[in-house]
Amino acid sequence: MNLPFVAQRLNQDTSYVGRFAPSPSGPLHLGSLVAALGSYIRARQMDGKWLLRIEDIDPPRALAGADDLIKESLVRHGLLWDDEVTYQHDSHQRYEQALNWLQANGHSYCCQCNRKQRLANPKGQSCPCAQLALAKDECATVLRNTLGAQHIQDLALGAVSFAKGACDDFILRRKDGLYAYQLAVVVDDIYAGVTEVVRGADILPSTAYQLALYQLFNQPAPAYLHLPLVMGDNGQKLSKQNHAPRLNDAVANSNLCRALGALGLPVPRALNNAAVNDILEFALSNWHIAFIANNASAFDNRIDA
């Protein structure tokens, strides 16, 4: 199988490779710190690598300088990554190679429908555009999803079943030429040799689509660990879209304690004012997946913003 975008895998010197992959649409908030901390802890406990990737495939959503703010926050919180930071804008050639391979092997088609028209298409059926010979540069590129996953075994949640929509076709490249998240994240993780993905539970539905791509590329999928979301007082998850407040890097130790609480590990009072490295050492010695796997309420965790 000729897949040039996976010809060079970057991390064959370690059995575990994790990553944190924020979008530069704003600085880190408490919810994103929980995801970063959870993935960092796992990588360090497994004596593996922890990579940082800036997911900037959607320039209209990017905030100038946000990547530097993200990196600064991670450093202030003691979350130091391995290897060089990677940016998705440097990977367009690999995404194009993946698209060309999928098209050449009959796994994709061009679609001229808008979002509303695609949603109106019967579940489990390809769009009528799949039968047309449409020009690539005038349409979105869509995957013929014949391999949509119905179940996964999440390290925290256990067996997870997906809705029927997990088998629907999905966009790989938008009509405006921007690459879609599902394609980019799979190609990036394959290329980096990622063995485990630790991320927030809000991304869980995307896993079904990503597994379809792993199957088509005949590449091993990573293990998945989805973490509880941090909710604000209004009942909404903390996110950049919901205007979650930026982390105050000046109180990194307090932020880490709150993030560990969201991960099911209360921090002893004696550590509340401890140095960042001491709090991280405590986390690495004491945190376990069971703290969230055995506590269903952790997935409705509310922390004051």
UniProtKB/TrEMBL annotation:
InterPro entries assigned: Glu-Q_tRNA(Asp)_Synthase, Glu/Gln-tRNA-synth, Glu/Gln-tRNA-synth_Ib_cat-dom, GluQ/Sye, Rossmann-like_a/b/a_fold
This protein's record includes keyword Protein biosynthesis: yes
Alphabetically ordered keywords of this record: Aminoacyl-tRNA synthetase, ATP-binding, Ligase, Metal-binding, Nucleotide-binding, Protein biosynthesis, Zinc
Family annotation (SUPFAM superfamilies): Nucleotidylyl transferase
Gene3D superfamilies linked to this entry: HUPs
Domain Glutamyl/glutaminyl-tRNA synthetase class Ib catalytic: from-to ranges: 19-244
Recorded family membership: Belongs to the class-I aminoacyl-tRNA synthetase family.
Name of this chain's protein: tRNA glutamyl-Q(34) synthetase GluQRS
Organism name: Paraglaciecola mesophila
Taxonomic lineage of the native organism: Bacteria, Pseudomonadati, Pseudomonadota, Gammaproteobacteria, Alteromonadales
